[in-house]
Design a protein that fits this description.
Length: about 575
């Protein structure tokens, strides 16, 4: 009788696993739909306009996108890897503060840096104005100054905010390297520079390659920077082809070509990591030996780590704060006799902020819930189909927002048209647009784009829970859902919180997908900053831009805390 009950319980467990697998499969199909729509769009009939694009701007899109990727890739490798090595394995003044300060540029979107540095470095900006006063220059013909709105300028803006991806992963790799290997390099007479090139760097190559691939994916996703700098890339081309030219078929084909770029990048990154494997078996719990840099070397190390922090965060944030205060005081003086105008401007800011908070909060909650379903379904049934379905569901993070937006709009448009045609034929009623151009469509685009951001922390946290707890819960008669609710979710609080914050901030900063999918007259802080900066009204854009930067500090502080805690627990396992 007991054996029969165990058998029945096992059968019930298999059925429960099957239901979770079905849920994972359905979510994977739904979230993969935009990517499939882009792939299917390759076969759409857009030959005339496509031929026009090929003979006019397509070559420029390809060359600028490749140049942008090459420049950003090289700069992020140099800045991210160099600073990670200095703060991890060298000792110099200010190193302890720079460990977390180097993460601050993650809080500032590249398009905000583009607006700030254009205002600072343009012909009528404070830098060139001061230079003309110092050297008695009368016009631009008297001196040369690098053009900010150019391809090199876009590369610099993107590299300043994307190098932390390489820094974070490279530093993690350096922290986990073998102490005995580094001590052996010292015993062979290698100094800091030789140890870096011959020992530490080769062992950290897989992590560096992963960080660079993330930076390049974000580069391909960028819209605000390249649009403001008038650098035509695939992202700007997709937007113009869809809206300015009204050619959805050609926009789908351009999205598919950009998707091919991304897939090639992912395959290349994985191949590079497969080709470079290093294994270490020494004691990791001893503090890493540090090279003391004193005098000029220490000053150079401090300067090398301070410049990216100042350029990527402190200067932009300080400029925005100054513009906001100056704009606020001047606006207060100008509107002294018209208090309703100032009140209306403040109300509009809070309207944009509430829209951003609504979208970010709703997306964060849904993304965490879906991530829990996917991760738990994979835990219950770690079969190959389940793993493939999960990977398909989180594929969107590797795809630019403009591509996802096009992929979302196409099937939703087909659905709305099909429902409208059926209702007209059956009841003589026009339903109009049910999903296209709604908050639902926008949140769906965000979920496709950022689900991987929430899935990573949830999957990691769930993997840290012992399977013995599942067995114990099952022996007490709990099914999968009650086990998740009563046992796993309380243990996952930290991971769920981290996942929600990361998604929340990414949605607050997202620009290309929001521009394409958003409802009419529904602006977010990112859209507001883009519109004002495009009209050269940077002083008015300072307040919403600074709000985005401040919200972006949340995951940076969280990452800094986790890195510090992880380092302490590595050196002192009892922590």
């Amino acid at each position: 009788m007991q054996l029969q009950q165990i058998g029945e319980g096992s059968g019930r467990h298999r059925r429960r696993v099957s239901s979770w697998s079905i849920a994972v499969g359905l979510l994977a199909v739904l979230l993969s739909l935009p990517v499939l729509a882009v792939v299917v769009g390759v076969f759409s009939d857009a030959k005339p306009i496509w031929a026009h694009l090929q003979t006019t701007v397509l070559g420029t899109y390809v060359s600028n996108s490749l140049g942008l990727m090459l420049g950003v890739g090289l700069l992020t490798i140099v800045i991210g890897t160099g600073t990670a090595w200095l703060v991890t394995l060298c000792e110099f003044p200010g190193r302890w503060a720079l460990e977390w300060l180097l993460l601050l540029p993650l809080a500032a979107p590249a398009y905000i840096l583009a607006y700030v540095y254009t205002d600072l470095l343009d012909y009528y900006g404070p830098v060139q104005t001061t230079l003309r006063q110092w050297f008695q220059w009368e016009s631009a013909r008297d001196y040369w100054f690098p053009a900010v709105r150019s391809l090199p300028g876009a590369i610099a803006m993107l590299a300043l905010v994307l190098y932390p991806y390489v820094y974070l992963l490279a530093r993690s790799a350096f922290l986990s390297q073998s102490v005995s290997t580094l001590e052996a390099s010292r015993s062979l007479g290698y100094g800091p520079w030789q140890s870096f090139w011959r020992v530490a760097l080769p062992m950290a190559r897989p992590a560096i390659a992963a960080g660079v691939s993330l930076a390049l994916m974000e580069t391909l996703n960028d819209f605000g920077t390249v649009e403001y700098f008038s650098v035509p890339t695939f992202t700007t081309g997709i937007y113009r082809t869809w809206f300015a030219m009204g050619e959805r078929g050609a926009a789908m084909q351009m999205s598919a070509l950009l998707l091919l770029f991304v897939v090639s990048l992912v395959v290349l990154e994985r191949w590079a990591r497969r080709q470079q494997r290093y294994y270490q078996s020494s004691n990791r719990y001893r503090p890493l030996p540090k090279y003391a840099l004193r005098g000029v070397r220490g000053l150079l190390a401090l300067l090398a780590c301070t410049v990216p922090v100042c350029g990527g965060f402190l200067i932009p944030a300080g400029t925005l704060l100054q513009l906001m205060l100056a704009g606020g005081s001047s606006a207060a003086d100008a509107d002294a006799d018209f208090p309703t105008a100032a009140a209306a401007g403040e109300d509009r800011f809070w309207s944009f902020a509430s829209n951003s908070l609504l979208l970010a909060g709703l997306t964060a909650l849904l993304a965490v819930a879906i991530a829990v379903i996917l991760a738990y379904g994979q835990r219950l049934d770690p079969s190959k189909p389940n793993r493939i379905a999960t990977q398909a569901a989180v594929l969107g993070y590797a795809i630019p927002g403009s591509v996802i937006a096009v992929g979302v709009m196409a099937p939703l448009g087909y659905f709305d048209n099909a429902v409208d045609a059926w209702m007209r034929s059956q009841f003589g009623i026009s339903t109009g647009l049910l999903l296209s151009g709604t908050i639902t469509a926008l949140v769906f685009a965000y979920l496709v784009r950022f689900l991987a951001v929430s899935f990573g922390p949830v999957e990691t946290s769930l993997g840290n829970i012992s399977p013995n707890l599942d067995d114990a819960s099952r022996s007490l008669g709990y099914r999968a859902a009650p086990t998740l609710r009563r046992i796993h979710l309380p243990l996952l609080r930290s991971g769920l919180f981290s996942a929600a914050i990361l998604v929340f901030v990414d949605v607050m900063k997202e620009l290309p997908a929001t521009l394409i999918v958003r409802p009419f007259n529904f602006d977010t802080l990112a859209i507001r900053v883009y519109n004002l900066a495009s009209d050269e009204r940077l002083a008015e854009a300072a307040q919403p831009a600074l709000a985005i930067v401040l919200v972006g500090l949340l995951p940076v502080l969280l990452l800094s805390w986790q890195m510090t805690r992880g380092r302490q627990s590595t050196v002192h396992p009892e922590l």
